[in-house]
Write a structure and sequence with these properties.
This protein is of the alpha/beta class and 221 residues long. It is 35% helix and 24% strand. It is globular, with a radius of gyration of 17 Å. InterPro entries: CysQ/Inositol_MonoPase, Inositol_monophosphatase-like.
């Protein structure tokens, strides 16, 4: 029986992650892009693709289905020995909505959850948003720097953090798969001010992102 879109997204993210582990610290971006492009061409040849590692194809703007992928999110962390905060993002947009998605953390090693009294907000380790300190002060939170957007989102999904805030700009492929996974886990996902996230736009730039527990959404937006 043919794979569903969700099954395909999960398999491709997982297999790309295994491939990246095998070539680390080589040219992960190119290796992952070539693998994902070939797999999507084989299994979903009629769908369009928007990828960080490939030229933008304007035909996606009139397509009903577009795979939004980041073959290696967190290239900096991938290149640093011992870091686990890099990811593979595979998402499917269909007629205005994200309908499938998967985030793989190939180097992640599960640790015991440690209860924390103060809320934890994960932010970019290289580009923390200027508003982060203000937001943290408003809810007496601790800021936790981390790499890949996928890694930060999964920290919230796993309950190791309470929110992920980004306000320095990103692209659709940075957040599409993480947002799908977060919503599937019952989390809030929106622009930093609460406006909806919109994908497959002519300009794939997104200014900001908020992923958090539902009870924090009204306070943080």
């Amino acid at each position: 029986m043919a794979e569903t879109d969700g099954e395909l997204a999960r398999r491709l993210a997982t297999e790309t992650g295994r491939l990246l582990v095998s070539v680390r610290p080589g040219d992960g971006d190119r290796t992952a892009q070539n693998f994902l492009a070939a797999q999507l061409e084989e299994h979903r040849p009629n769908d369009a693709v928007l990828s960080e590692e490939a030229p933008d194809d304007p035909r996606r703007l009139t397509a009903d289905r577009v795979w939004i992928i980041d073959p290696l999110d967190g290239s900096r962390e991938f290149a640093e020995p011992g870091r686990t905060d890099w990811a593979v993002h595979v998402a499917l947009w269909e007629r205005g909505e994200l309908v499938a998605g998967a985030v793989a953390l190939p180097a992640f090693q599960r640790i015991s959850r440690v209860p924390h009294r103060r809320p934890r907000i994960v932010v970019s380790r290289t580009r923390p948003p200027e508003c982060a300190e203000r937001v943290a002060a408003a809810i007496n939170a601790v800021l936790v720097p981390m790499g890949s957007a996928g890694a930060k989102t999964m920290a919230v999904v796993r309950g190791e953090a309470d929110a992920y805030l980004h306000a320095g700009g990103m692209y659709e492929w940075d957040s599409a798969a993480p947002v799908f996974v977060a919503r599937a886990a019952g989390l809030h996902a929106s622009r930093a001010d609460g406006r909806p996230l919109v994908y497959n736009q002519p300009d794939p730039w997104l200014p900001d992102l908020l992923i958090c527990r539902q009870e924090l959404a009204e306070v943080l937006t």
